[in-house]
Amino acid sequence: MRKLLLTGAAIAALGLPAHAADLALVLGNSDYQRIDDLRSGTALTDSEAKLQTAGFSVLIEDDADAAEIRSRFRDFVTRAPEAERLVVALSGRFVHSDGETWYLPVDARDTSLPEAVSEALPLSAVMTVLAAHPGRAVLLLGAADDEGNGQGLTQPGIGTLDIPQGVTVLRGSPKDVASLMSGNLTEPGASLMQSAQSEDLRASGYMPRDFILVTDPSGKKPAPVKTPEADPSAPYWDMARSEDTITAYQLYLDRYPNGTNAAQAKQRIQQLRDEPQRQAKATEEALNLSRDQKREVQQNLTILKFDPKGVDGIFGPGSRGAIARWQKANGFDDTSYLTRAQLTALSAQGEKRAAELKAEAEARQAKIDQEDRAYWEQTGKAGDEAGLRAYLKKYPDGLFAELAQERLDKIEADRRDEAQSADRADWDVARKADTIASYRDYLASRSDPAFKAEAEARIAELQQQNQQSDAMDAAAAKEAALNLPGVAKSLVEQRLAQMGLKPGKVDGVFDKDTRRAIRRYQTAGGLEATGYLDQATVAQLLAGAIGAR
């Protein structure tokens, strides 16, 4: 292994330029003892003389082990504060983690994180030294393109570098770095950026086009390079990087929306937002929810007033939005994905609310029934036609609606028997047409028609239906949009029958008895009494039924 440290006296003895206020650290590793050798490695020895001629004190090692790297770097750190210009060249194998990159010594046992931390040279330490010389510090990195596979928490190669302000970083293959160092790096008057480009090196950090490392052919110290103007957003960016939170990065963007690091801040905010989302999604997927369980989630969300836009067992945008709103309202992170604990909490809230709704409906129905019975006592119970019609007008779906209609039918039948055949025939024609016009024609057909009361009552019913037709059409459309299968309709009828609401035959077909039962349920439940199902009615009606099934 070759070691060389040139002091100012040695430079003078060699007849080199008198100033030695520039410093270079050159480490080139290729012959590794326990990991694969660097097949494309090239020694950096040829660059030594050129750096000396340009006025640099050179600290150089070929195939340096950990102890030698530490020794050379310690010398570099000690002498750097007195130097005008700094050049560091590292060629060999590198490994990196999310936040650090290390330069490996030739005696590295492996490429693991413990080995890197304990034995390798961290580039953050190199950057710290170079940061004290803004506009006058160059870091050259020659990394192999055959790095192989990662080991645990480390990956081969150079990771993302946190480059201090005013530091120039040139990256490429070991061969290209060696070519630049032995060629135009210290050529007087040569543009560093053009020289790097000609060697296929990638530049980052401080990259002015007119950056010339050596300007005087005699070797005299070049005029100091103007230090870049301070970036006013730098302290805020440093704070954001230190805290590494969405809030910190957003504060930076609020103050410097077009700042130097605005794009990085936005990218990191998105990454931080995505990380919990991905984890939350994986957590819910691990629950392996069935479609019925998802329906129950949607049902609970609905009765808790977090509308999922459907109870179909499919978690689309509507369901995800409802879950997120529920999570936020209950103090959870609004990821829109459920955990087992949240699923339990939602189920408990849903069951509690279902019980409350049931109790509220029962209390409301008891009050309605009490008023219904009292009105029946005052009107229809006596059995006269006027009283029966008054009762049906107020309570068309009431407790005694069927009985009142039966009695009116009997009154009509008796009247038919008493009516003259011509009157009866005209009435039959009107009933068959069942329109407002047909009943008015019947009433105009004679001075005292036998079925006057029935005709007037039916005209009133039809007029009310016409007024409500648009609302009924909308209600019917809502029910159709639910696209309920026959088994769900049968379940609705079963629930209505269990509540004593008389939906008729349980066959999945909604007839007039079913519509009346639905209206009765909606009235008791404080819902719009249309006789047609909507999402709120279904969720409230079937609360607990899916899980029970």
From TrEMBL:
Domain Peptidoglycan binding-like: 293-346, 492-541
Protein name listed in UniProt: Peptidoglycan-binding protein
Keywords: Coiled coil, Signal
Coiled-coil region list: 340-374
Domain of life: Bacteria
Keyword Coiled coil: yes
Ranges where the record places region Disordered: 215-235
InterPro entries linked: Caspase-like_dom_sf, Peptidoglycan-bd-like, PGBD-like_sf, PGBDSf
Residues of the signal peptide: 1-20
